[in-house]
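Q: Here's a chain of 78 amino acids. Please give me its 3D structure as tokens.
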Amino acid sequence: MLAAAVIPASVLSAAAAQSGDINNDGKVNSADARLLQQYLLTETGSLSNWQSADLNGDRSIDAVDLSMLKRIAPTEEE
């Protein structure tokens, strides 16, 4: 079960805003959030771009990173 983390927008750094493109399509969007969520829930497979998934820079991919990604990713595709 994922733990929810509340992260103020002021904590999100410019570096975090540029990372998050987990699927390497050149955009940070809900597809990246879905990919990271699936990875965290199933604990199988691997992320080809794990550095972009580590939004808080702690060298660990977890629910905090997912929460941060959901804060910066648009909820609807434009």
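Q: Can you summarize the key feature?
A: The mean pLDDT is 80.
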